[in-house]
Amino acid sequence: GENVEQHPSTLSVQEGDSAVIKCTYSDSASNYFPWYKQELGKGPQLIIDIRSNVGEKKDQRIAVTLNKTAKHFSLHITETQPEDSAVYFCAAIGSGGGADGLTFGKGTHLIIQP
Amino acid sequence: SAVISQKPSRDICQRGTSLTIQCQVDSQVTMMFWYRQQPGQSLTLIATANQGSEATYESGFVIDKFPISRPNLTFSTLTVSNMSPEDSSIYLCSVGSGAVPAQYFGPGTRLLVL
Question: Which residue, among A33, A44, A40, A23, has the nearest Cα to A85 in the 3D structure?
């Protein structure tokens, strides 16, 4: 089955700086890579996703890059703000497809220092 | 977008008892899922709730322990049966489509078993 590794487990950055979270996956047939943000006491929120036919996708201060050859994808947050503090999860859908093929990373606790 | 509500939001239960968690969506959805998130951990899919048929369970989860109902396209319940302290977790309902399987999550039910 799919295996998703996420690093770092905790990331502390100064407000205004950029943050990068990296994930690697094992199944070369994986074709969908979502990122979720989970604030304290809330459910995860899908913030951006990318499919295997593109290398980069941007949405305002958030971007995701995908390197299929190396089997890794990254979340980039620029000009970080206090409200970006949360736990971020990456995920990948393996060759099985559907939610039963969606494997999550272990999460990154992002801390924005004022 | 879909708005998901869960009841109860949290509960403290005695071991050996059962708790039923409700998930209500504000629109008809094809795919509905139940996840477990143990303290400080990532998300694990328990089962896919199928409308009109039995739920499809992931490895390590069985119907006797986690019976699921899905009477229509907007509602589902998950029961945690014969609870033990190891069942203490956040239980999350999620909905999506074939293209984006876990697109929206509910706020979660925080369960503590004593």
Answer: A40
CB B70 within 8 A of CB B99: no
Look-up of token digits 């477990």: B36
User: Is A87 within 8 Å of B37 (Cβ atoms)?
Assistant: no
Token representation of residue A92 = 């990948």
Q: State yes or no: cis peptide before B85, omega within 30 of 0.
A: no
User: For B101, which of A44, A99, A106 is closest by C-beta distance?
Assistant: A99
Q: What is the pLDDT of residues A35-58, one digit of tens each?
A: 999 999 999 999 999 998 889 999
Spell out which residues of chain B touch residue A46, defining contact as CB-CB under 8 Å. Answer: 100, 102-104
The CA distance from A38 to B46, in Å, is 19
Tokens of A11: 């990331």
CB contact at 8 A, B80 and B17:
no
B58 min Cα distance to partner chain A (Å)? 7
Q: How many CA atoms lie within 13 A of A28 on its CB side?
A: 2
- How close B1 comes to chain A (CA, Å)? 11
Residue with token string 């304290």: A40
Per-residue pLDDT tens over the stretch B25-76:
999 998 899 999 998 889 999 999 988 888 999 999 999 999 999 999 999 9
A4 contacts A91 by C-beta, under 8 angstroms: yes
Q: How many CB atoms lie under 10 A from the CB of residue B24?
A: 15
Question: Measured between alpha carbons, how far is A112 from B51 in angstroms, rounded to an integer?
Answer: 42
Q: Is A84 helix (H, G, I), strand (E, B) or coil?
A: helix
